[in-house]
Amino acid sequence: xxxxxxxxxxFLAVNAAAVEMYGYSLEEFLGMTLRDIRPGEDLPRLxxxxxxxxxxxxxxxxxxxxxxxxxxIDVEITSHDLDWAGRGARLVVAxxxxxxxxxxxxxxQREAELRELTAELEERVARRxxxxxxxxxxxxxxxxxxxxxxxxxxxxxxxxxxxxxxxLADRVGEEGRHYLRRIRDGAAKMAQLVDDLLDFSRxxxxxxxxxxxxxxxxxxxxxxxxxxxQEGRRVELRRGPLPAAECDPAMMRVVFTNxxxxxxxxxxxxxxxxxxxxxxxxxxxxxxFVRDNGVGFDPRYADKIFGVFQRLHRQEDFEGxxxxxxxxxxxxxxxxxxxxxxxxxxAGATFYFTLGxxxxxxxxxxxxx
Amino acid sequence: MNQEIEILLVEDDPADVxxxxxxxxxxxxxxxxxVVRDGEEALDFLFCRxxxxxxxxxxxxxxxxxxxxxxxxDGIEVLRQLKADPDMRLIPVVILTSSREERDxxxxxxxxxxxxxxxxxxxxxxxxxxxxxGLYWLLVNEPPLPPRRPREVGE
Lengths: 369, 155
Fold this sequence. Notes:
The complex is a heterodimer.
Chain A: E1 2-5, E2 11-14, H1 16-22, H2 26-30, H3 43-52, E3 58-66, E4 72-84, E5 87-96, H4 98-149, H5 151-167, H6 169-205, E6 211-214, H7 215-225, H8 227-230, E7 235-239, E8 244-247, H9 249-266, E9 273-282, E10 285-292, H10 324-334, E11 338-343, E12 349-354, H11 364-367
Parallel strand pairs in A: 7-9
Antiparallel strand pairs in A: 1-2, 1-5, 3-4, 4-5, 6-8, 9-10, 10-12, 11-12
Chain B: E1 7-10, H1 14-25, E2 33-36, H2 39-46, E3 63-66, H3 75-84, E4 93-97, H4 102-110, E5 115-118, H5 123-140
Parallel strand pairs in B: 1-2, 1-3, 3-4, 4-5
Helix pairs in contact in B: 1-5, 2-3
């Protein structure tokens, strides 16, 4: 705070705060004018402003001032007319806003950097999404080709073997017909593999259609389609209540179909086969389980069982391509859930799975293709 | 042609041609089948032009068995041209393909195909399917009348 003479611009009085802020002593101040605390280039503006000074209170705004050691500070000035021992003077209150301005400037800079970074990231995401879309459609074309082109040769393997066995039966003989049957079996297995792989690949590329699904009703539907697998056998199906959940009904149908047809398959040596489906709390999380009293397997291989093409039993004992459980795992991972299994050799197996849920609308997971 | 062609088989894979003919032979359709190996030949045959300019438009086949993946002009394009022609669209067309792709199914029906059959990989199933197709479309189904009534030529 200080008072200056309106005519000479000389300091008439200053307070202790001014002394501290500017670094000049009281005596020094009284020998100075307003000009001495301005950077040279600001002087014209100063003189203009002084001349234009309104009488009464004025907020004349932001100014740069020079301190004794040469540093420039930013000050906010408010001033008022004063009569000082008969002379026209002006009282000035100067607020040091240097730090404030600096902080604000830094904040604005940071915000600008952030905006730039965000824009860059969004561009990168857009490009990646484009790339992924392109890869996806390449994969579709590849799958289409596979689905069409692999089937014809398989049919031909099967067909000509059969024709040979039928039309040249005597010349081919019993042994020959046996080998031809092996050829046909090989072709049939490969055809099944092609179908399973295509399903596996297609599910990997599909987006989930989140819908509220009554899992119990879905289970019942699947059990009905598996009727033929139960014919001529004693199968005990125990069913506990299953919750409703947000999930993709078509994909969950695949999960149930796989798990249940596995249960039916590996309980074939049992009479009765006992299969139980329900909901259990596992470490505080509700999980759906499918339990069977079938042949089970060594728990040391529990992780391998979800690998593509991984089988833990001999082909001649239990048929299968080893893709089903890999597909189940893929589906559950897509849903943000888990699948795992507990088993013992000759004592059945229990498959558990949990479902995550749809990601909240603006989370990163939503924008992934 | 001393005997009318009843089935036009459009198939580019020679092994599949052989298997299909083998299946149809059982019902004695074999000598009434014309095989063409690509879409261009199929159209030439049906529209009686090019290599088949000598054919009569008044004696269309009773059935076209159409594969989809063909050289030169593909199956869907053949179908499109046939069904766009006011006379040709009467001829029953059955798509017989390995493809299980949904878009082929959708496109086929949208263009007015009469039936869409996926070729089974298992030969017994394939044989039964083809035989049934032949029996149905040639014996059970009533073919459409040809565009111009044939004159009495003492058949």
